[in-house]
Records
---
Amino acid sequence: MTDKKKAVVLVSGGLDSATVLAMANAQGYECYALSFDYGQRQISELNAARAVAKAHGAIEHKVVRLSLNDFGGSALTDNNIDVPEEETEGIPVTYVPARNTVFLSLALGWAEVLGASEIFIGVNAVDYSGYPDCRPEFIDAYEKMANLATKAGIEGHTLSIQTPLISLTKAEIIQAGLTVGVDYSLTVSCYQADNHGQACGRCDSCRLRAKGFEDAGTDDPTRYQS
């Protein structure tokens, strides 16, 4: 018998979610990794998610298939919208409408089935590209809703949403990840990576990642397209 707490960890295959999974594992949680094939522009991040889940302590890894590309509305789910390669003001076109709300809802369902008391998600309100569903206000509101909407919550088995990266810079995230043994060479952050997981080096996510490694003063293991 184990007395470890169970946690569902959202794992995209990117730098942030890999860090969160390794952190949760280091804290002694039994980690159940959850990823989504949601019709995103590139699928190499899911290959990265599988590698990250295997390397960093997931008891089980599920990939749920969705079709957010049926709605479009984002450069990540609609091939008619270009991924921007220059900085833009406001909420960028790479924002996927309601994505974290959808993802957290499915994580909530699995957590209730597992009897897990925590959901870990790698949202960040510092280097977060302007996404509204990465803010503390959203997480707080969702956690309150989750405990109102579930049998577990009504019966007093409170669920919490853990966001250990929410107030960290990208450099601080990388430094924290290195202390818990994250292998960042396994991760893919690029919005338009090729089928081999090689990054474009030009999109917003690539720029944030490169600056993070530079500011952290550590080697960047990212593989770039030639």
---
Amino acid sequence: MNYFAQLLKEWRYAIENEARITHRPPLLLTAAVYYSADFLVYGDRRSYPAAAIKNYMDWVNVMCYDYHGSWNTSATGAHAALFDPNTNLSSIYGLKSWIRAGVPGNKIVMGLPLYGKSWKLKDPKLHGVGAPAVGVGPGDDGVLLYSEVVEFNKKNDATIAYDVNTVSTYSYVGSLWVGYDDALSTTVKVGFAQALGLRGYFFWAISYDTEWKVTAQASRAWIQD
């Protein structure tokens, strides 16, 4: 991470130098980063160089997703949970960790997923977030683009539910379960991003939407608030 801080410093110097030579606006310096400013790697605690990010970068895109997936098939999960009552695997924890580290909100952009994660339920009668599972569900290694989730729900007449505790949506039919974000959960998350004073939000990826259902609603929510 010390080398990363030095790299950011050198990049910023190069960008400003180029702007002076060319008389053009300086290039933007951004990065996609982990959901939390500090984390464990092979048992060692690491932290992003918050001071260097604050001083040399225009903003960071915080990837607030992939908290759960095919690497854990024993239970369903909200893979982009805004809150998690049991662990630190949540967007609110991650975003606040960046602010605590010293990166100002106007240099933080919240990442939102336009895809879902699927599981096979152990018992179809138990279908909430965290319900026992026995494997991945439909999709590529248990991943469905949002457009595919909409198609899955319609084709199978799936039951759609909203989980208040994690601010996420899920659908299920029989033993198949899909967790994702829709227009409602995304709108709530956009509101929290504004409440934290963040620079904005981004989607991974905008092409996964269906008829701009989620992305257009997010834009309206940000403008209205």
---
Amino acid sequence: MKQYLDLCQHILETGTKKGDRTGTGTYSVFGYQMRFDLAQGFPLLTTKKTAFRLIVSELLWFIKGDTNIRTLIQERNGIWDEWAFERYVNSAAYTGPDMTDFGRRVLKDEEFATIYKAELASFKEKILADEEFAKQHGDLGPVYGKQWRAWDSANGVIDQLAQVIDSIKHNPDSRRHIVTAWNPAEVDEMALPPCHLLFQFYVADGKLSCQLYQRSADVFLGVPFNIASYALLIHLIAHECGLEVGEFVHTLGDAHLYQNHIDQVHEQLAREPKELPTLKVNYNGRSIFDLTAEDISIEGYDPHPRIKAPIAV
């Protein structure tokens, strides 16, 4: 994972100090590319523990076309909780304590942080217990899964993921093996416009490679997840198409470190990378659309301890 650590160092040395939507502030560079040979091991970060279980359940959530956090909460995955909670507290249905700007306030006000945690926990309990509440307040709008599996067009619904798999199988040399999550007609309806917004597959010498374009990249918290998620996607689709894995090419637009993550980045850079783990998938003759989180695991993962950092909402 030297490529990822080099990116962190590059931003520290050359990044421009910028404001951002969250009000947190970043150090940012524009236009950066990393390449990972998947035959060399599964690219799960070893300089801090990364929650592979969360990566798996989120990717399967995308693959199944789901957009409601109820599924993720059932899998004990809280990656998208804050985005749904933000929509809820900004709606007319919410009548609790003022949650304005909770992402930053929780870092500065211990009393508020206690109130916030209680409100978020109550929200998640309602999502799990009340199906109608979940439908109304757990859905994130037409985010990744909707665009991958059910893109609305004038000619009907398009299942981009199924189409690209069929295209790879029957026309491997095509230059149109593309899936996009950036739907201009629906961006404003999404809890968060897609950051990893377009990916293209490439077949050569019996191997499947993929290039991702990511418009916005939270390098400390988000990018390790993105690398592992798309590496896993390549493995799954390669198997579906009877191919070996090739490269994951990760192209970044605005690659940034949040200003409140800098100490954590220095701590990570002081650590020595370890051997990459190995991916294990129990296909048992099934399509990738039928896999569960229990079917996917890693072996030989011995990372350095986790490094906590606040998420910017």
---
Amino acid sequence: MDKFEKIDKEIKGYTQSKQPGSEREMDPKPIAEDEDYQAGGKLKGKVALITGGDSGIGRAVAILYAKEGADVAIGYYDETDDADNTVKRLEEIGVKAKSYAFDLKDVEQCKKLVTDVVTDFGKLNILVNNGGVQFPQEDFLDVTPEQIQTTFSTNIFGMMYLSQAAIPHLSEGDTIINTSSVTAYRGSDTLIDYSATKGAITAFTRSLAQHLAPKKIRVNSVAPGPIYTPLIPATFPAEKVEKHGQETALERRGQPSENAPAYVFLASKDSTYITGQAIHINGGDYISS
């Protein structure tokens, strides 16, 4: 039994009361850092901005970016303890790091975030649009206009606001990486508005990639499946948290550290001929053609 299977069996049913959730409250903690990862300086000299970088997949990506030599700015909503812990870890690795509280739904806050990062770090090379929320409903008729507005404003509108703010600071060889979801490809009967935003992210990625190709700025996405992040206990009832990921071909949930190398690949020179694409990390939850 490997470390991923071992921790999967240790996870029992529990919930959190507020989205997007706190990693500090999770027990056991997600695997954000894989000790077997061998860094190669692939992002040395780069500056990355990662939304939702305080916890979950965003935290794991921030750690690997730091190990690969990038200075890292993380945007987060209000999980200050998680953000502080992540910045502390990045600084231990030896890079410059800073966290910024902001609201993805607010265009002016998105603009200010990018301006502040460029001011504090001197430049911006990698934008990882990773922040998001989800609110399951068993009956689609129970999805309120307010829920739809919140989900779209957070998951796709904010991604567009940040990308617009970042593009003037990006140049040839720089990258944008968007976090989509397996639900964009297979759907979800209880996450209809969320799945719709993830489908929009997939189309946005493909379209923006075409738009920025003449500037040699690449745009790609990662589409995770069931991953053990704070969003899961903050979203689902305890019994679903305990069984999360068992329906996949690998019969377990994934860990944030299993996603992060794909974000390194897409940000580095290893992927110079890849744009407008999605990398699927879902344990066989959905196998695309």
